Amino acid sequence: MRDLRPMGVHSRGGPTPELLAKANATIDKMTQDFPNWASKDVDKLDTLLAEVASGDAEPAMIKDVYKLAHDMRGQGGSFGYPVVTGVAGSFCKFVNSLDEIDQGAIEILQAHVKALRAVLQNKIAGDGGPVGAKIQDGLDRAVARYHEKRAEG
After folding, report:
1. Which H helix or E strand runs over 87?
2. Cβ atoms within 10 A of the Cβ of 22, count?
């Protein structure tokens, strides 16, 4: 009689040690490659933001910008870059706080993109230590100043 269970699965339903080792190797490889492929997403984010800033973009394009940053937010922590998660999360939170996209908002969003690029180019993994804290603090202060100016009218 032929065994119809998927390869690599014990009769109890759990994965074999070989299958776990293969999965771990794949995750390790993706973690090492994360700065490279995430940098491509940062390039896309930069391009989309440039279109939004030019005024030639469709109003719905900000949804594409948001989605890309949202995806990066999820990926950062998964691959050992919680600073990416923090910066991309700040980006998303800022977008959600906006009633309109004005020049000041574009500048804040571009600052987030520059921060993401710096983190990935310099492979600032983990919490980033003092550099990661400085990046996040600078973005938080810029967002707060933007909102204060808007509230003043």
Report:
1. helix 82-97
2. 13
Lookup result for tokens 């949804």: 63
On whether the CB atoms of residues 118 and 46 are closer than 8 A, the answer is no
State the residue for tokens 């574009």: 106
Which residue pairs, CB below 8 angstroms and at least 24 apart, start in 90-96? Answer: 90/136, 90/139, 90/140, 90/143, 91/116, 92/66, 94/143, 95/62, 95/65, 95/66, 95/69, 96/66
Per-residue model confidence as pLDDT tens for the chain (153 residues): 444 444 444 456 677 778 777 766 666 666 678 899 899 999 999 999 999 888 877 777 888 899 999 999 999 988 899 999 999 999 999 999 998 889 999 999 999 999 999 999 999 998 899 999 999 999 999 999 999 999 987
> Would you say 82 and 76 are in contact if contact means Cβ atoms under 8 Å apart?
yes
Within 10 angstroms of residue 50's Cβ, the number of other Cβ atoms is 14
Q: Is 102 helix (H, G, I), strand (E, B) or coil?
A: coil
